[in-house]
Design a protein that fits this description.
Elements: E1 23-27, E2 34-38, E3 43-45, E4 52-54, E5 62-66, E6 73-77, E7 82-84, E8 91-93, E9 100-104, E10 111-115, E11 120-122, E12 129-131, H1 136-144
Antiparallel strand pairs: 1-2, 3-4, 5-6, 7-8, 9-10, 11-12
Length: about 140
């Protein structure tokens, strides 16, 4: 005797993004997943790992950087001097855009970022150490003569 086929399940309702300003996001302090939460919440419980992450006060500007130890994206309050990774515990220097400079690696030409005042920078790709051009003191000496 033939078995009747069940009808196709009804598809779930399509996702509709919330109205602007009613939700915000932060990174879970436990598993590093992106969490959405309603504006006004003081903490968020992650559905994946059950970690409770505190929500920064309203108006707090957030910044991001990639951990130098494990390459995890870290989110932190703008203006912090350093950020400790919750995955590998590396302490990362958090520099603002006006505190860094760029140079191409002297070997593989990869664009490197370094703090102002550094005399050299090591490439994370090929391990080559690129000397930074003339320091400010050398430039000042040349201008004085």
């Amino acid at each position: 005797m033939p078995v009747p086929l069940a009808p196709y399940p009804t598809p779930p309702a399509p996702f509709t993004p919330p109205a602007t300003g009613s939700e915000s996001q932060l990174v879970c302090s436990g598993c590093r997943n992106l969490l959405l939460y309603p504006v006004g919440a003081t903490s968020v419980c992650c559905a994946v790992c059950s970690s409770v992450t505190a929500v920064p006060p309203p108006g707090t500007e957030m910044a991001q950087l990639v951990c130098g130890g494990c390459h995890t994206l870290l989110m932190y309050i703008r203006g912090a001097a350093s950020v400790q990774c919750s995955c590998c515990h590396t302490i990362n220097l958090a520099l603002e855009g006006n505190q860094v400079a760029h140079v191409n690696c002297g070997n593989c030409r990869m664009l490197l970022m370094y703090p102002y005042g550094a005399r050299s920078v090591k490439c994370a790709v090929c391990q080559f150490i690129t000397s930074i051009g003339a320091s400010t003191s050398n430039i000042e000496q040349k201008l004085a003569t």
